[in-house]
């Protein structure tokens, strides 16, 4: 009883558990910021510090350029390769490099810490919060993928992709890029919380989801080529509006179809609302799922996937 009273006095009348709850969301904003920075530095060491800068640039360029060449070849065979098609495909492929990395980042961070490094249990014993750790790892993956996206865009310009007359619309770009990145990281956080519950093939789920999103978000072809109900799903994804916003900022033209008829201001508002909705739900789902995984013993699981 005396110990409990002493603990209450030392925390301003709160129990120690209330002052710093045990779970994926805890501590002060300063603790979260330190966790985010430390996780970002760790992610950089894991993702990019394994080779010399020149070899890293070559590695980041080969895969997206190979995919870009494949898609342009398909359009050429179909007789639809023109200047507008090049711009549409190049920007969609470039932005989706960031989408794939940010979507998979939180899940891979959780599974790496659980199964490869076996450190996830120790994070719970520190002031670190698991959510900023996962977000920090995802942001570094997205930043590295951004380098690939820049290489793809430069290659597209070399292939004849026309940029917006008067230069890139920087104000629009500076608005849609952070909003889009936040939205996809939020989806990745929710996906990671789900995947940590799984017994088998947890590593493959982010790639499967990314591949599905790739077909739905209008990255390579307009939404109008999809069946009606599938178009509605694609239009509900913030990623669709993010890619469209980047296309307008870089190319100065809207996409064909109904998506291109939406005013830019309305497009930005839809993207902002979608991002807010995602971040209103993702931390709650993350907290619930990680606490459930801890109670069920899933944080010590090794799927051998």
The helix/strand order is HHHHHHHHHHHH
Roughly what is the average pLDDT, rounded to an integer?
Answer: 84
SS summary, helix count: 12
Oligomer: single chain
Biggest sheet descriptor: none
Instruction: Give me the Rg, rounded.
Output: 22 Å
Q: Strand share of the residues?
A: under 5%
Helix content: over 70%
List low-pLDDT spans. Answer: 1-22
Q: Structural class of the secondary structure composition?
A: mainly alpha
Number of domains: 1
Alpha-carbon distance between the two ends: 48 Å
What would you call the shape?
Answer: globular
Number of beta strands: 0
Describe this structure in words.
With 305 residues, the chain is mostly helical. It contains 12 helices and no strands. The radius of gyration is 22 Å and the shape is globular. The chain has helices at residues 2-10, 16-19, 29-47, 53-77, 83-116, 120-123, 130-158, 170-195, 204-216, 228-236, 238-251, 264-296. The chain has one domain.
């Amino acid at each position: 009883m005396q110990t409990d009273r002493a603990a209450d006095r030392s925390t301003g009348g709160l129990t120690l558990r209330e002052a710093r709850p045990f779970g994926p969301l805890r501590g002060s904003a300063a603790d979260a910021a330190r966790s985010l920075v430390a996780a970002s530095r760790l992610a950089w060491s894991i993702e990019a510090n394994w080779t010399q800068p020149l070899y890293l640039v070559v590695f980041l360029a080969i895969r997206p350029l190979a995919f870009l060449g494949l898609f342009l070849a398909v359009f050429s065979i179909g007789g639809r390769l023109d200047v507008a098609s090049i711009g549409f495909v190049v920007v969609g492929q470039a932005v989706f490099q960031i989408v794939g990395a940010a979507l998979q980042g939180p899940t891979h961070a959780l599974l790496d810490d659980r199964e490869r490094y076996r450190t996830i249990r120790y994070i719970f014993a520190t002031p670190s919060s698991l959510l900023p750790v996962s977000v920090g790892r995802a942001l570094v993956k997205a930043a590295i993928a951004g380098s690939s996206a820049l290489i793809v865009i430069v290659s597209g310009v070399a292939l004849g992709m026309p940029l917006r007359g008067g230069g890139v619309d920087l104000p629009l770009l500076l608005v849609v890029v952070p909003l889009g990145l936040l939205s996809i990281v939020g989806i990745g956080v929710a996906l990671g919380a789900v995947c940590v519950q799984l017994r088998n093939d947890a590593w493959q789920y982010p790639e499967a989801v990314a591949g599905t999103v790739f077909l739905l978000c209008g990255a390579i072809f307009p939404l109008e080529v999809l069946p009606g109900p599938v178009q509605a799903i694609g239009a509900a994804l913030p990623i669709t509006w993010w890619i469209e916003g980047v296309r307008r900022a870089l190319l100065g033209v809207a996409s064909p179809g109904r998506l291109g008829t939406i005013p830019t201001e309305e497009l930005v508002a839809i993207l902002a609302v979608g991002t807010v909705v995602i971040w209103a739900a993702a931390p709650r789902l993350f907290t619930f799922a990680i606490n459930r995984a801890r109670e069920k013993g899933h944080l010590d699981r090794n799927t051998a996937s």
